Every structure is written in structure tokens, then in C-alpha cells.
Amino acid sequence: MEYRHRSRLAKMCEGFFSPMQDDSPEIRLMRFACAGQAEEAAKLFGESKQFGGLPAVDTPYGRFEGADGIRRFAAGWLERFQAESAEITPVCQTQSGGRSVTEMNVSFVKDGMIDEVPMFAVGDLRANGMLDEARIYCNFTRVPGLTPYRKPIFRSAHLEMGDPNLLTGSFREYYEALHHVPKVDVERIIASMGDGCVFGGYEPITGDEPETEDPAPMDRETLTRIYTDMSNHIPRWVGMRYETLIDNGITAVIEWQHIVTDLGVEEAGRVCMSGISAYSRGTDGRLCSIRICDYAGFERTIDWSKTPISREEAFSINRVHVFPAGVGNG
Questions:
Q1: How does pLDDT run across 170-227, given as a tens digit for each residue?
Q2: pTM of the entire structure?
Q3: CA terminus-to-terminus distance, the chain
Q4: What H or E segment, with its residue span, contains residue 131?
């Protein structure tokens, strides 16, 4: 069977050690969804979370709460992707602190061809192989008819960027140099990366090309140009507040939400959304793979008639006038 779209995710994760527990509950959930086994999917969750609240599966196209909601998620998975069948191929797994994240390719069969969709599946774990909540991420262009808006999943405790002291090594160095005021430090960013560092894995679809090129390291001159350009609007427009951190010492995964300034709204239409990033460390301790799943650059194309909340409410979430000097410097 031929591919309509291929994923670069497996190539992005080559060359570094990543142990895999194939029976991890977030993997089982995705397999049940691909098989349309709604009851089996619901059995991975309790009637309520262990310490209160409804269990849930949060997807790019909506949130499904409680046992009935989780059944609807699994029963409607193939239909939402307009597929006849699907199967998953786990690629990279990161487990820490009661959470498990599996990056995987989901192969959807449509009209006799395969659409290979790279996804993050994040599980909040509880005892006996069960889940309290699962969150699924992929690029919006991979979901038929989806507009590029992901409603914030978490209620931010405060409107400041994450504390770098929670991070370690090259991950901390990269994050602090990029996302903390008063400005981006391009030299520190470049120094945090190994010579073979690759970027991507969750890119938007831009056409019907059957194959994608293998990821290749960027030269230092190109990286410097890219991050210098970013420094023109970070943190003037937007800051990153991480809401979960899963770091096994090899790969660090963060689920994050934006904090958006007035200038970000006025100049670029930036709006708070949820996203996820994975950063893998090479044998030299520097970053060797950066994989980010977000909708950056597509904000002005959002169709607000298709979003779960109004435009006005969306622009009110995690909104600040400006980042004060010194915020988030650790």
C-alpha cells in the first residue's frame, strides 16, 4: 500500500537510547481507539480520577470527559480522521514523575493509501496500568477540517514563565536563553546544541507529497539567523509557561501554554494555545533533537466559527500587558 503522507518522526529519534514499555496505558489507549474498541478504552480509566474530577481524553479537536465521553472518543477516532482503519507505531517514550509520553506514528488508511500522522500521547498514570487523563497532540493540518486553535488545557497558576530551576543541563540552557527576559541570547542557544542537532517531526502538511526528506542538521549560520529572527518577537509577543515536565534524563517533554502580551495580539494576532515540545540530549550532553508540536504562524487563519470558545474569550486567556524586567530569570 502506498503512502499519501510520510512522517519524519522516526528519523528524528534515531541515534539516542530510549527504552520503551509497549504495554504502557497511553499506548494501549491509542491502540483501542484505532481498533474502535470503545469499551476497552473506557476501562483504562476509573469512574473518577483518583483524587477527584472526571477522567478525560483531550484531543486537538475536543475534550472528552467521563466514561461516556471516552467511549465517544474511541468510537469516533477513525471517523474524525476520515479513515477506514489505523494502527500505531511507537517511536520514542519518555516516562517520569507519574506520567508517560509516547511519540508515535499513526497510520490511517484512506481510499487505499496511508496517511502517516506523527502524534504525542501523554498519560497521567495511576495504579494497575490505568489512566487519570490522556492528552493527544498532532498538527492541525493532519486532522480534516480542523482550524488552527488548541484551547488551553490547563488553568495556569500564575502568569509568569516557567522556573528554569526545574530544568537541567542543555534543556535548561536552551529554554532560559530563548524564553526568558529581557531578551533572547542567541549564542547560548546555539551553544546548547550538538553539531548534529535536528529539528521537526510534527510539521504541517503543505501538499500531497508522498515522501518527506530525512531531517538534516542545520549549519550554525542558518541557526543563528533563525534564532536572531525569533529574538525580534520573543519575549515581546509571547512567553512559554510549562504546565507539565516529563524528563527521564535522555529526553525532556514539556506541555506548555502561551502567555501573550498586548503587542503579540496587536502585531501578530497571537493567542494563548496549548502545545508540546520534546528535547533529546546527545551523548555529549547537548541537544541532538528538538521536536515541537504547535500552530505557530497560523493564528491569523483561525476560523472562530469552528472553535470551542469565542474569539473574545480566547484572547483573554493568559493575557498580560508586557513582561516586567527580570521575570522568570530564576
A1: 999 999 999 886 789 999 999 999 998 999 999 998 765 545 567 778 899 999 999 9
A2: 0.95
A3: 52
A4: strand 130-137
**How is residue 324 annotated by DSSP?**
P
Do 327 and 267 contact (CB within 8 A), yes or no? no
Q: Give the β-pairing of 56-59 and 130-137.
A: parallel
Name which of 203, 238, 180 is nearest 6 in CA terms.
203
Nearest to 318 by CA among 241, 231, 218: 241
| Residues 199/218, Cβ–Cβ less than 8 Å | yes
Residue type, 47: E
CA distance 313 to 98: 32
Work out whether the CA dihedral 153, 156, 161, 167 comes out positive or negative.
Answer: negative
pLDDT 10s digits, 78-122? 999 999 999 999 999 999 999 999 999 999 999 999 999 999 999
Instruction: Give the integer Cα–Cα distance in Å for 23 and 16.
Output: 21
Distances (CA, A) of 330 to 172, 180, 325: 11, 9, 12
Distances from the Cα of 45 to the Cαs of 134, 241, 289, in angstroms?
10, 28, 33
How far, in Å, CA of 140 to CA of 329, rounded? 33
